[in-house]
Design goal:
This protein is mainly beta. Among the domains are: about 90 residues, Immunoglobulin-like, CATH 2.60.40; about 90 residues, Immunoglobulin-like (Sandwich); about 90 residues, Carboxypeptidase-like, regulatory domain (Immunoglobulin-like, Sandwich), CATH 2.60.40. The chain contains 2 helices and 43 strands. The chain has a 6-stranded mixed sheet with strand order 30-31-26-36-33-34. Strands 2, 3, 5, 6 and 7 form a 5-stranded antiparallel sheet that branches. A hairpin with a 2-residue loop joins strand 41 and strand 42. The longest helix has 14 residues. The relative contact order is 0.13.
Amino acid sequence: MSDRTVRVISLALLALAWLAVSAPSATAAGAIAGTVRDASNGQPLAGATVWLEIIEGGCPTTRAETDAGGRYAFGELVPGRYRVRATQRGYAARYHGEGGDPSFGSEIVVMPGERRRADVSLPPAAEVSGHIHDADGRPLARGYVFFDHLSFTNRSFHTMTDGDGYYWVADLPPGDYRISARRYSPSAHQVVGARWFHPGTTDEQQSEAVPLTPGRPAQVDILFGREPAPTWSVLVQGASGEPVARAEVALRRLSGPGEAPLTCRTDEKGLCSRSLAPGEYEAFVARAPAPYGAGGREAAHARRFRVERGRTTLSQFRLGAGLSLAGAFRAPRGRKADPSNERRWIYSSDAYDGGDPPTDHGLRLTLTQRLPGSRASSDIRVEARVDGETAFVFDGLGAGFTYVLEVSSRDPLRRYCVTGLAWGDVALDPGRVRLLEEPAALSVEISPCAVLVGRASGREAIVLRRIGGPPLPGPLYPAEQRAQPSGGRFAFRGLPAGRYVVERLGAGPVELRLDPGEVHELLRLTAVP
């Protein structure tokens, strides 16, 4: 991270910290605690790292370390859905509730004021090391090494080589692996070139599988040969023909295998290249640095091209200057807990009174836009720069696009939602901004998001739909969210204030209203006989 980026983030945190709210009351906070043990002998593991993951997304994970007895604890948790994962050198990482095959374990639904236990057992891991070099003995310094388990595909493992082309990994699940490596470009900030498999081939079918077992360290070297000539290149320029570095171009194959999107990030000359299998492709600029932003409609639309053996195809994009969006924050009136209903809690305090701002929270705004001209959606996220104590500016935005205004908290246990949006005296749909020309100043009001938790019988998914207002935040559905009951509990976090309906198969709908920062608990959602 550059010094300039650090300064911008620091200013953003100072300027936006006054919007933070007080910590939740002790009666509503939950906790998760447990013990990490060696799966082979049941002994507690001291110094293991435990990660608390929030299933709803939008917030970072938080971590803890086990004590001498292998114990850990996470307190003051907002009710919701969590996962617990533990790691330790010499052991394979595991989730709470994970079986023999790697998975994401069991969900832990925390109700208000509830303390849940989540123990994790770590099995001994396999160890592998080796060198990566070319035919002349030159090492692959700072390259990426990938470990593909042949029995499962839902988990990925990788590491980096040091300056001598050496790598060492000691926490892989036992099994048969296909090991490969790729070069890393510091200027493009991504892996580049062909993927070379052990012992030294770019053809995955000719690679050799490597069995890895605990207690038997393996040594696997990879020989890099001559890089095949690139079959596709892209050039990204500005309006005056200047090269645009660090522009991210999304690439998708239209037919055949490998239809998952790939990315290619330009270097200082505005160029990037990829070796592709013959076929039909499309590409579009997914991200570009300020002041270009989305680059306008022309750059966002996909370019189609065909790759043939022995030929190099060049795609070009010309980015125009983007628009700027300036604005300022305003604080809503705070709310207190509702003493008349023990199933409702409000995570808020009195309105900000101009005193010293709290320092335990920080906020960051992003603008999200769905790109047109592509079969799949891709998000563009633009971070605001601070302009004064409460003002912000977004640079390099595309004209004619609709953006979603989002707020993410530095506090991993809490989320915030946009509750008010206006241009001057004109109220807007909260969260959505359509830019047709250089807009007036934007006024943004944010509040803590609401949480809905409950208890349900049966295994059918719980469906949550919003009545009126903009669509619910992702990641599952644009118009609804679903949760699978875990242990008779379910939870939805990150909800903006408004009216909702809760449905499930065989049960009548339940309508309710959520206030900003509210934790609402449904006592029971049962199926109709």
